[in-house]
Amino acid sequence: MAKVTFLRPQGLELVVDATEGTSVMQAAVAHGVTEVVAECGGTLACATCHVYVADEHLDRLPPISSDEEEMLDYTAAERQPGSRLSCQLPLGPDLDGIVVWCPSTQY
Amino acid sequence: MQPSSVVVVGAGQAGCQVVSSLRDAGYQGRIALIGAEPQLPYQRPPLSKGHLTGKALRESLWLRPEAWYDEQGVDLHLGVRVTHVDRIAHQVQLSDGGMLPYGCLVLALGSRHREIPLPGSDLEGVVGLRTLDEADEVRDKLALAHHVVVVGGGFIGMEVAATAAQLGKEATVLEIAPQLMGRVLSRETASFLLGAHQKRGLALELGCSAAALVGIHGSVQAVDTADGRRLPADLVLLGVGAVPCTELALDAGLEVDNGIVVDELLRTSDPDIYAVGDCASAPCPFAGGRHTRLESVQNATAQGRAVAATIAGTPTTNDSVPWFWSDQADLKIQIAGLTTGHDEVVLTGDRSNDRFSVWCFAAGSLVGVESVNRPADHMAARKLLGRTPSVTADEVRAEGFDPKGAAAGAVAAG
Q: Between chains, do A29 and B63 touch, taking CB under 8 Å as contact?
């Protein structure tokens, strides 16, 4: 299992134990973190699973692919240095304990 | 004034979105969500994609975790159908014998397979693909199949056929029309896909229909084509499109015309009954205001959000740009807008390396953009389609056209 902390817009914090091999996006959907919409189900087609990864975890992340890079320019909430599409963040030992902020909108 | 209770019939993407957005909008009344299938509400798009190769875990298909419905105070009725709507008494009759009163009713009934009168359709090994149960069947049979024939060159058929080819199966698609995905794609994109799939080992027969399915001992063995050939087949997928589920609405005396007819606020001819998703025919600003029925996740969720806001007290129309996607082998196809009826196209990118977009114009206005492996074009197009005036064909054609720069100046309409 890998721990993921979601910081939600209303100031709520949710820590979940997620199955390794799934993604941060899947962890969000599986635990009812509805701010992560993931309309395309994780196929990199919609940019509605945008999250902000907390600064201290940025250097643990896998590199951004060219497709994700292009999609990140079109997130509904402003792109920031910690912006990632959470479907592109696979959970394993590398990302255990990751903390992400949910943006206030995905549309 | 908010109704005291909302009953949502249909627990697919649209129905689930309605209940979720109702709570997001602060609606505090009673909510019931009724689904005919036994599983928790799930996503359908992966069923014809990752699910077939076993890549997607079953639980990863759930739209919301099981506990969520309780937490949100949503009364979930699964494996239950609504058999009758009593508009006078404001209640629905359930297949398990129960009755549910409603203040407001939302029909999110979805669509189902278009049936074709094909001899042999009831043979073992002849399948359709819409539900999770069907997808499990297709996945299990596909693993063992050698010769796969797909009847119908639409999105689902092409996704399954492309997966079959990737799994090393001999796969053939029969499409009665002269081009693939003819209802929704431009000639340019469709002809590209024809060549691209052939290169990837798919056999594609255009202008060709199945006349009969032939079996031995109850199992399918071959497909007889209308032009007199017999193609070996141990798995046949029938994928010739969908029709809206409208019986309940017809029975209730609501207006139906290729879907349940609704107004801008997604209200049926009864002001206490709304319809959303595949089953609804709504006026669409991207089709010149004409009543349009769209089968897509985007349409289901956008209409679901709009109707929830309306019911919760803020009348809201759905003005969002329609979009669609399909993953076929390594080809990511994304469509923004509605390209039907376009009279001019401009190509950007490079078809020879499988990365390009087709910008479609009608009477000089941008109506839609089809992209293959160009997600940035697709996202830019969605922004550009949401504003008027958008870009002209000449602007797109010009050397150095920058969709991102053009979109940056666009004001989103929804």
A: yes
